[in-house]
Protein 1
Amino acid sequence: MKVALRVPLVLAFWARGVVGGIIFVHQMPECGGERLLSYDSTYKGDRRREQFFVASEWAIELIRALHTKAMLEGGAEESVAELFYIPCFFALLLALHDTASLECLVRASATLVASPIFRRNAGYDHFYLHGFEHL
């Protein structure tokens, strides 16, 4: 439980810019990553997805800003990292709720569960950006 109690404190300090260089960034499938934050590569040309983007743009912008911060702070080696960032937007994939996004969700989840880094502390030292609870 030591890890589970420490992570929220470290995350709070990280969000305020107090710590740096302690984040390891996982390699995740591209389908669940940054491209979901881009209108042109994910939403343009698909009417349902375009409508989703317009309704959700405020949340996507917030996630983009926090993701950028995490990526800039990331780069720590696994052995010295205190936090482990999962750059996959699971909630956004669920909210899109089409075949491609659900298949990506399966691939991303399998990638994470297969990671020994994730399994060693049952994921308690990992974080991802959610942001879609109330849509």
Note: The helical segments are 2-15, 39-42, 47-73, 90-96, 99-113, 116-120.
Protein 2
Amino acid sequence: QNDIEHNLNQILLDRVGVQWEKEDLSYLKPEWFAESYWRRVSNAKLVSTEADAKFYIAHSDVRLVYNSLSHFETLAFNFDIMADEKAGIVRTGYEGIVEVRYGKGEFILFLTPPYVSEGSPPSTFGKKAWTNVEKTTLLQSFGLSIPSEEDWQMNW
């Protein structure tokens, strides 16, 4: 069983019907979503180790920075989430940010590239600015290290 099948098999269908046409979904408008999402991610408690992330997630949102795609793969494996990427975009990532629901609490662990910090988001945040960008440019804009030519050939 591969990673995708493993994760999909854990999804349970909710038994409560929702009348979506009666729901207010305005919070999903791209400009509003990007702003509120940035605020939540950048205000999460910044930690430097997996152990700290696992400790603090019981009390607040937590942010753990990954510095390369190989570092992300290690974190993904350790938190039991999908580790693959395509063209520099990590699976389930939004602007390079991946959410992990760890434990049973209401808080989120955010795995983020180095560009995420407190303060205002980059002007391109949430604007699908990466659609026609080469992989090395994308990785650099996220603040991630670029693999060596040898690693690039083997893993990309």
Note: Strands lie at 45-47, 62-65, 85-86, 89-90, 98-100, 109-112.
Protein 3
Amino acid sequence: VLSPRPVIVGLSLGATRHFKLRHVGAGEEGARGQGDATVVSIPMPHNTAVIMWDDCQEAWHHAVPRQADSSVGRHPKAGLVRLSLTFRMARPELGEEHVKNCRCGRPCGLKSKGGRYYLACNPAGATAQCSFWEPCAWAQAEAERLRRE
């Protein structure tokens, strides 16, 4: 079970690409009428790891955007090829009692928006979602516990 505030590591091998982080709400009007336009671009050359700690998954959108071949840092042996390996910290101590199925019978995905956790349809391999959504009290409590530590 992936938990709230997971530790996620991304390892980049081969050609250099840019890993971009945009603060959730960037460019949107905030409470004081100003959007938070924080964007971070991290070049990821061969054998580089990025570690997303704490609320990074919830507070930042992340992506490796497409780039023109001419703007990609070529690797001496791999050329334009890039491999990305992602490692996620599982929390087996949370147990199967937290796994819930949505209306279409698939396990729900744990999501976060605005600091609030919820379960939603997560149709891996399916063509449509069933629109299931509900607040997730156990994940909210676990995230608050982790923030206090």
Note: The mean pLDDT is 84.
Protein 4
Amino acid sequence: LIYALKYFLPHPSELEWKNGNTYVFVLPMAMGLTVDAFYQLPILQCHHRYNITTYNNDNDNDTTTTTTNICWNEDVITQLDLLYVLLSGLLVAFVFTLAFRGVLGVKKCYWGAAAVVHGIVFCLVGKALPFVIMYE
């Protein structure tokens, strides 16, 4: 976590705040990496979820309580999610290679890359938000 905060979270004085790349690419990636590093801490990796199931048999007080663990690496942000992120990065890099060789327009590549980055952000935030706000 300290390593991620020191080397991957950009210092405000080092950013070009007038450049759109800061908001579109740098900040979402830095925040995502920092949140993921934060949830790698052993105390925060798993939450307990208590499910209470009530059975209406002869005795109305007949209930069972089950406990399940929801873990960050296994249940929230999985290896498949990381593979999608890596594949997206490779595709964006390939498209920019085509743009710099004059095959595609650079402007379209930037918009496409921005859409890919924000699609990843919305997808992963949608998966992570229930875990983050989960209380015991």
Note: Helices lie at 2-7, 20-38, 72-76, 79-100, 106-132.
